[in-house]
Amino acid sequence: MHVTFCCAGGDPGRWETELRRRIPNLTFSVWAPGAPPEADVALVWAPPQQFIDEQPQLKGLFNAAAGVDALLRLRLPPNLPIVRLEDAGMAVQMAEYVCHALIHDFRVFGQLDRQQREHRWQQPPAPDRRGYPVGVMGLGVLGRRVVQALLGFDYAVHTWTRTPPVDPPPGVHCHVGPDALDGFLGASRGLVCVLPLTPATRDILNRRHLSRLRPGGYVVNVARGAHVVDQDLIDLIDEGHLSGATLDVFRQEPLPTDHPFWAHPRIRVTPHTSARTLETSSVVQIVDKIAQVAAGVPWHRIGGWVDPQRGY
Ligand code: NAP
Ligand code: GLV
User: Fold this and answer.
1) Would you say residue 10 has pLDDT above 90?
2) Catalytic annotation on 224?
3) How far does CA 216 lie from the centroid of its chain?
4) Model confidence at 173, in pLDDT bands (50, 70, 90)?
5) How many helices (H) and strands (E) does the chain have?
6) Could you list the residue range(s) of the whole structural domain that residue 123 is in?
7) Which of 68, 253, 257, 265 has its CA 20 to 30 A from that of 285?
8) Structural domain includes residue 306
9) Do 98 and 243 share a domain, yes or no?
10) Is the pTM of this model over 0.70?
11) How many domains, the chain?
12) Residue in 84, 209, 224, 227 annotated catalytic
């Protein structure tokens, strides 16, 4: 098998060593513009359109990340299989990040920080978590771990998915499909977005939907920036309907220095860091998936296969 490597900013050495350990008679190449179209499969992260155009012989792509939206934006040959990264150490990081953000809001740590700066001893009201149900959009590989972590803190958790969840975590209130979205939002005060970016989910955190959250709602977006309509979020915070937001992902990354999110007193901005790709776990997982293809396993039977109809 011939694997070509086209990962923006990635180091091919580690991948090549691990691939050679697992796959006999491997040919490995690092793509450069004009490279001959000889590879069987490609290992990619944010490849340019030129790569796709110059490698029409490829039988499939392995995406070294969980989200495939950047890949699906390219003009791809029809029916080109794509397999993505699943968890590989990201889910626990995302659960940690989301819990931190929501607990910071629920337990009024912002107010406590201000009090400390003023040397002011004042206990806030005892927390009543019945007033802080959390809605999680997406119960996939990452969303499930987020939900489990929130349940560990005894939050009431609502989930929203496209299809009825198989084996939902016990105690969770499951809402399914577009018709259930308003009810899901109306039941939630904390809102976490862990959806893939698809035509159905782009701009989903807009004024109409966010205004359905319970008063004082708090938004955590760890999915993709284009899920949020930026000005709608700012307006709803400034109008007092929402208490604030923690945002890890943005329409343009890096977030432009003059974007209003940076200076907003109720918005926390982090640089796409809620769930970092861990090299060791990712290499091991993707190499295993490539080895399955080399051994003849059909693409759609490989974990992380992207269903072209669903777009994730
Ligand atoms: P996943 O396993 O594919 O799960 C996606 C979930 O979203 C599923 O529960 C799915 O519903 C639901 N969903 C998809 N479209 C929907 C729709 N139209 N309506 C309602 N629910 C819908 O994905 P994942 O591995 O958890 O990753 C989720 C996203 O996280 C990635 O796509 C990526 O954009 C983002 N991400 C961000 C970071 C970061 O550092 N910020 C890191 C990694 C990933 P069903 O269960 O019905 O299919
Ligand atoms: C990161 O954002 C990923 O999709 O893996």
Assistant:
1) no
2) yes
3) 24
4) very high
5) 11, 12
6) 90-269
7) 253
8) no
9) yes
10) yes
11) 2
12) 224
